[in-house]
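Re: the multi-chain job from yesterday

Posting the exact lines I submitted so nobody has to dig through the queue logs.
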Amino acid sequence: MSSAEDPTTWLRAEHANLAAAHDVASTWGWNDLASSLRTWAFNGDLPSLKRPARVCES
Amino acid sequence: MMRALALALLAVVATAPAAHAASPVSLTDGFYVDPDSNPAVWVRNNASDGRNAAIKNNISTKPIARWFGNWSGDIKTAVSGYVNKTGTKLPVLVAYNIPGRDACGGHSGGGAGTPEAYRTWISKFAEGIGSRPAVVVIEPDSLADFNCMTDAKIAERTAMIKYATEQFKAKAPNTWAYLDAGNAQWVPANTMATRLNNAGVRNVRGFSLNVSNYHTTAASTTYGNSVNASFSGFTKPYVIDTSRNGNGHNGEWCNPGGRKLGTPARTGGGAEMLLWVKVPGDSDGRCGKAPTVDAGKFDPQLAYDLVFGH
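And the result, structure tokens for all chains:
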């Protein structure tokens, strides 16, 4: 994927469905992001998403 | 293109069965908010009270632990009834029925009549949870108030707590149970580590700190890390009761003034979890700002003052 295409854009748009976003991130092997999304979903909050470095390695 | 693909996958995954991991956090999607907690019942029944909105917005709609003891009736029925109504949310329960309970404080005395009665009770407690995901705090203060007990009673209590850990390990596989370890300024960390080890902490997830107390999360974390450093060859996760620690400790423990709500329940935050174990607004006993309110009884003024730090 292009590093110019920031996945956090759509993740942020989908923040109401963080649990499902977690599953997407997990399926794609973005494990650090998936872990963070899982925690945010469980705690019911959405900290400002910062672009994870690992995402752009895919 | 990328966004469309992602959303398409999102839609597929969202309708697929959830993958279950071993931890109760992975099996649920947030902490359970009890609609029948003492603050919630008060809010429901006192709509016209000027304190209603503050207590509702800041306390009764937050996840708070449910305490179980000799007032709970048949314990297996009570516990199973509670965990079975929590849906996809994670309930936090407190087992508070050890014989000789609150030996030093004296405000919450009681508990099961005999060690054998306690063993039956805690076994049924664990059975009541069964395979449901849950968090359990085992017997607040029970390993800290040894100063008011004889050596024989200490040994007896330690054996009971160890039995409790064995019950949760055997009968509640999706429960994270935490042995209570008092608070940051009660028992030296190395002494508490020995007590926890003797009481079977290795059988359960970890230990709990600051239950019903006021020490800051930072002070509790420092203490928890010291306890962990005192174990031999292992460490354990710990949870912290942040229900009333927003302004820290002022040297008093029994309905002191000027205290404030702390961080609501969450995973992480410096410990494995921060929890509201003590119910904000429930009295510590007939003392401090609530000299006529029995321990465990809800007082709206106590709750209201915790919202604003009065």
